[in-house]
Amino acid sequence: xxxxxxxxxxxxxxxxxxxITINEIYPHYYSNGAVTFFLNHHNDENIKEDISNNCVxxxxxxxxxxxxxxxxxxxxxxxLFVLPEYQGNGYGTALxxxxxxxxxxxxxxxxxxxxxSAKSIYLKRxxxxxxxxxxKTENNDYLCYDVMKKQL
Length: 152
Known about the structure:
By secondary structure, the chain is α+β, with helices and mostly antiparallel strands. Helices cover 36% and strands 32% of the residues. It has five helices and seven strands; from the N terminus they run E-H-H-H-E-E-E-H-E-H-E-E. It has helices spanning 11-25, 32-41, 44-52, 91-104, 119-124; strands at 2-5, 56-60, 66-73, 76-82, 109-114, 128-136, 142-151. Strand 2 and strand 3 (66-73) form a beta hairpin.
C-alpha cells in the first residue's frame, strides 16, 4: 500500500474514486437530492483547487491500482473515499491514519464533516460530534451531517 500526493494529472482518478463511491454507497443513506448535492460539491473545480494546494492524496494497492483518496486542508479531513470494491481491506484506515498523522504535526485537533455512512468509523476512532447541519437540497430533500472533532 502506498499513499502519495496527487498531481494535476490525477484529477480524473480522484473524481472517479469520489463519484463512484458516492453513487454506490450514499443512496443507501441519503435521498436523491442529497446524493446529487454531494456529487456537485465534489466537482472538478473543487478537486482541482485542492490538488493545486497540495492537499489531495491517493492510496494505491500493491498492483498500483488507485483504491482511495483523502484531502487534508489544515486541520480538516475532507473527501475521504475508498472505492467500494476495496472497502474492508484497510485502505480507509491507512488513509485516515495518514491524515491524522499529517495534521498532528501542526495541530492539536482534527475536524471532519461525517457522512452517515462513515460516522460510526469516526466514533470508534475517538471523534465526537460538535455540530449538526441540515442543508436543503433539490426536490425538497435534506442532507444531514455531523461535524466531528478529535483532540490530539
